[in-house]
Amino acid sequence: MLNLSFLSPLFFIGLAALALPIIAHLISRKSGVKKTFPAVSFLISSQGDLATRSRIKDLILLILRALILVLIVLVFAKPAVFSFSKSADNKPKSIAIVIDNSFSMGYENNFGRALDKALNLIDSIPDGSFTIIAPLVPNNENEQALIQERSGLKRTIQDIELSNSFTNNETRLEDIYSKLQKTPNDTKEVVLITDLQKNGWENQEYAMPWLELIDISQNPETSNHAVSEIDLDHGDDSTTVRAQVSNFSNDLVSELLTKISLNQQEIKNYIEIEPQNSSGLEVSFRASSALEGIGEIQTTYDKLKVDDTRHFISDGQNEDTKILIVDGDPREDSRLSETYYLARALETISEISGTQITVLDNNGLLNQELSEYELIYLANVGEITPRIAKELEKFVDTGGTAVIFLGNSVRASFYNTLLKNILPGDIQSITQGGLLRAQVDSEIFSKEIADKINQINIEKLYKTIPHAESEVIIDTTAEAPFLIKKDYGKGSVFIFTSTADTKWNNFSITPVFLPVIKKIHDLPNMHRSNSRHYFVDETVKIETFQDIKSMTVLNPDGEEYKVDTDSNEFSQTKLPGIYKVKTDGEVKYRFAVNINPKESNLEKIPHRSIESGDDQKGALAKVFKEIWRYFFWGVIALFVSESAFRAIFS
Amino acid sequence: MSNSILDIETALRLKNFSFRTSSKVSGYKSGIHKSHYNGISPDFLEHKQYNKGDELKQIDWRLYGRHDRLYVKKFEDEVNMRWCILVDKSASMDYGDNKYNKFEYAKRLAATLSYLLLKQGDSVGLIGFSDSGIELIPPRSGSHFITPILDKLNTLEPQGKTGLEEPILTALEAYRSDASFVIISDFLLETGAIEKSIKLARNSKKEISLFHVLHPDETDFNFSGSIEFEDLETNTKVIVDTGSLRHTYIKRIGEFITQLKHTCHENEARYVLSSTNEPIEKSLIQIADK
């Protein structure tokens, strides 16, 4: 059942303005100007039915003008129809209204609508309720507080800004819900106003009795493209910029203008991107030597602008990729070692691109600092300590890539427990292999590699149940995947469910081994250490210089922040763009901050949680739908009618 | 004071004009108007066979010499004319500021015309009329008679409604013989009533001239906005959106004027539209001969 309500009823005071046309009408009937006249009889006979027409005209004008005023007042009073949920009551409750301010909300006007929705919800909260207003992506400046006064809540809503990043939604929501526990009301609920974009949700079917999701997005079919990767390669007389532009829509993107600039040079290209695919772009800037400077890649803006540009720093030097190989089964005869073929493959790759390879055994791993590597291979590693597990998790979270090969030394329960956050699947028992098939929808391997996958012969492998957020890249007919990938934080974890050597399979001696390893090597996030490229909200370790104690960082808006001298860390990376590290007024170096392209894919989580009814939940009393726009168009129509009526009958 | 309504300058400019009637009239003094009676004026009219009783001195002896028959000469007699100037003193005439006031205009017109008529030897009488009363000055001749006429005009007060039949009857009573009636009025009456009064006079062989006095407001209706009008005679009030009514009103008053002109034409009466923003000379000259 729909009911009518007004969100700003104070504006009904404006109805007093109705007196204006009525007074004007009465004044016109009792004219203030009086005159004597000899030929009044002629006036009366001339008026005839004109007087009747005039009276009708005046009456119609009065009605039109009064209606215009009534509708204007109604527009400002914000009429809204609302329906009561079955558990609605007017008892005070504790409610947190969380506004999704992750950057995907910048699509069309989703964020503006979310703020409006939140403002409307404020009016439906029963008196005496405790309320928290919080952005989904936390902002330290306005951390949530419990407020009871409505105008204070509205001000807090208006202060929330769209961020350039995202967060772990479940953790954040649970944190906010925990703050409601201090309040005395029985009913406690969290309302998230969101676009339901899947990034940020670890569990896409996350549902809590206290959680209500409100989908603010209007169009279920979203389309977005984004510059998702940048890679620089410095030659003797040129700098090559490689970029990936992704199309997250179901439609072909054609003739998309891309502009790549480095210092003052700009190169334009038109590219075409298949639906749900990426398109590579490579341009070279010629110079007498490798170029140093700043640059950006920009595409034509779409409805989500923030991811259509990426900034980069060119330092003129190629970084060597540091790779750690941990061999769980080393042998004196290296050819019998677990990682023999793996190391040979990586050595081959290092001849093309700079690579430093370190091979350690289990014991060596225990004392190793993982953060200096970009790629870590764990091949049949039997002993994983909690410390190593924690370091490995941090390594992946900060952008590293871990590749795990299983084998007979692996203790599945240890892996499942200690590496549960980063492991792409739940490792179970060893099973017989089946025929291999690459997932045709995987973006990892080209069709050429996928066609050769069936050359691999698997004898044994661990049956591994992939986690929901993981991606099976190579599957077998034995219902046990061979290669699974999971993204965690800014990094990724690959798990081969069989060995790296030839004990359980012939993978390492097939022609596809090198291309697969090369592909993993070339994946993004490889150039992690000593890079001057960061994501929004990432903490940047500022380089130190001798004899310099005080350093500042200028953000892209020109705002200057002092660097903490104890930690030498800078965390105010809220804006994408180029940041300058300064000391004594001199720019020492620059670094680039970009948005994390994971959020660019606007695919939604299942809608189920919104519609799931729960009698215990004590959902919101009212669900509003604003209808003031209709009244606004009514005002316009009446204005036009009034003008036309006057023009015709004057 | 009494001379203030007499437009001397206009009168001087029109002194060489004569105001004549279009038909023959009966008069008792010699003047400029053709008489019904054959008299001794130098204007030869016709020859007539001598009959017993004709005066011998009128026999044309030269014609007798040529035709051997007796003919008598007949001459047109020229006599003075009797004018009755009827001035509407109804309340509706009291419209307009001093300069263009209809009643002042009517009095000025009556005074100047009276002066010119007396100057040319005619006798002039005056009737001020409205339903509140009729004031009469019998016709007299002689220039000195202008003074009582001016005095009477000055004492007229605009009040009451316009009524034409009663003053015409009064005039007919006072002017039994031939006379010319000049009616100065705004004629805010039914055209039927106006026609009835004109016919009444015409049936008594009276010449009729109508000066239709109107203020420019009445013809052009130059008002703006919404105005409450009160009738000067009936006090009827009406609120009018002047903008929307102007066109219809002007058309309506135009039809009235045309109808009045037509009525005059039908009844051989002269019609002169006198707008108070125009000099009275322009009105007077329309009934004058050079």
Task: Give a short summary of the structure.
The complex is a heterodimer of chains A (650) and B (290). Chain A is an alpha/beta fold and 650 residues long.
Global outline of chain A: elongated
Q: What is the CATH C-level name of the largest domain in chain A?
A: Alpha Beta
Low-confidence stretches of chain A: 525-530, 609-621
Structural class of chain B: alpha/beta
Strand order of the largest sheet of chain B: 6-5-4-7-8-11
CATH architecture of the largest domain in chain B: 3-Layer(aba) Sandwich
Radius of gyration of chain A: 33 Å
Tell me the span between the first and last alpha carbons of chain A. 46 Å
Shape of chain B: elongated
Helix/strand layout:
The complex is a heterodimer of chains A (650) and B (290).
Chain A: E1 2-6, H1 19-29, E2 33-37, H2 40-77, E3 79-84, E4 94-99, H3 110-124, E5 130-135, E6 146-147, H4 150-159, H5 169-180, E7 188-194, E8 211-215, E9 225-234, E10 238-247, E11 253-262, E12 265-273, E13 277-286, E14 292-299, E15 309-315, E16 321-327, H6 340-352, E17 355-361, H7 362-366, E18 375-379, H8 386-397, E19 401-405, H9 412-418, E20 425-432, E21 436-438, H10 447-452, E22 460-466, E23 471-476, E24 483-488, E25 491-496, H11 513-522, E26 533-535, E27 540-541, E28 552-554, E29 560-562, E30 569-570, E31 577-583, E32 586-594, H12 608-611, E33 622-626, H13 628-649
Parallel strand pairs in A: 4-5, 4-7, 7-8, 16-17, 16-18, 18-19, 19-25, 26-32
Antiparallel strand pairs in A: 1-3, 3-33, 5-6, 9-10, 10-13, 11-12, 11-14, 14-15, 20-22, 21-23, 23-24, 24-25, 27-30, 28-29, 28-31, 31-32
Chain B: H1 8-13, E1 30-38, E2 44-49, H2 61-67, E3 71-79, E4 82-88, H3 102-119, E5 123-130, E6 133-140, H4 146-155, H5 165-174, E7 180-185, H6 191-203, E8 207-214, H7 216-220, E9 226-231, E10 237-241, H8 242-266, E11 270-275, H9 280-284
Parallel strand pairs in B: 4-5, 4-7, 7-8, 8-11
Antiparallel strand pairs in B: 1-3, 2-3, 5-6, 9-10
